[in-house]
Design a protein that fits this description.
Helix content: over 70%
Radius of gyration: 27 Å
Shape: elongated
Strand content: under 5%
Number of helices: 10
Length: 203
C-alpha cells in the first residue's frame, strides 16, 4: 500500500510538471519544471528497481542537459512578447507536425499490439533477478542485441553536432580569430622587443 501511494505521488508530480513545462509562460520556469519532471521519473525508476537508470537520469539529464538548457535560455534573453505574437502564425505548421507524430505513434503501438510474434516476445525467458544486476542486463542489451543501433545513434548525434556547428559558423571579413597554430609557433624573440630608454628620454 505504501509503495502504491509513493508511485501515485511520483506519477502525479511527473505528469503535472510535464504539463507545466509546455504551459509555463516563462522559459526559465519551463526548464525548472523539466528538472522536477526528471527527478520524479528517477523516483519511478527506483520503485521499479532500476537504480542505474535513475542515477543516469539524475546525473546526465538533470546535472548536464537541463542545466545547459537553463543556461542557454538565460543567455538568449528571450522576449516572451515576440514569441506570443508569432504563435498564431506558426500554429498551422505545428498542428500538422503534431498530427503526423500522433499518427506515427498510433502506427507504432498498433503494430506492436497486432504483431504476429508479440506473444513470443512477451513470453521470452528472462534470467532471475538475483542472477543479474540492472547494469549488467542493460549492458548486455546495448552491446549485444542492439549494438548496431547503439552505434548508429552515436553516429546520428555526431552528424547532428557537426551540422549544428556548420549552420552557426559565420565567416566575416575583418574579424580577428584565435589561431592555435600561430600561437604555438610564436617565440620570445619574435614577440618581445627590448629597448633601452636613455635617462630623461621617456614619455
Amino acid at each position: 500500500m505504501f509503495s502504491a501511494l509513493i508511485f501515485y505521488m511520483f506519477a502525479a508530480l511527473a505528469v503535472a510538471s510535464g504539463v507545466m513545462v509546455i504551459s509555463a509562460r516563462n522559459p526559465v520556469h519551463s526548464v525548472l519544471f523539466l528538472i522536477l519532471c526528471f527527478f520524479n521519473a528517477a523516483g519511478l525508476f527506483l520503485l521499479l528497481g532500476a537504480e542505474f537508470l535513475a542515477m543516469v537520469l539524475v546525473v546526465v539529464y538533470v546535472g548536464a542537459v537541463a542545466v545547459l538548457f537553463l543556461f542557454v535560455v538565460m543567455m538568449l534573453d528571450i522576449n516572451v512578447v515576440e514569441l506570443r505574437e508569432g504563435f498564431l502564425q506558426y500554429l498551422p505548421t505545428g498542428a500538422v507536425v503534431g498530427i503526423v507524430l500522433l499518427v506515427e505513434l498510433m502506427v507504432m503501438f498498433g503494430g506492436w499490439a497486432f504483431a504476429p510474434d508479440v506473444e513470443a516476445l512477451i513470453q521470452a525467458p528472462a534470467p532471475a533477478a538475483e542472477q543479474i544486476t540492472n547494469t549488467e542486463a542493460l549492458g548486455r542489451l546495448l552491446y549485444t542485441t542492439y549494438a548496431y543501433l547503439f552505434q548508429a545513434s552515436g553516429l546520428l548525434l555526431l552528424v547532428a553536432m557537426v551540422g549544428t556547428i556548420l549552420l552557426t559558423l559565420r565567416r566575416r571579413e575583418g574579424v580577428r580569430k584565435q589561431v592555435i597554430a600561430r600561437q604555438l609557433e610564436r617565440t620570445a624573440a619574435g614577440s618581445v622587443e627590448i629597448r633601452k630608454v636613455p635617462t630623461g628620454g621617456g614619455i
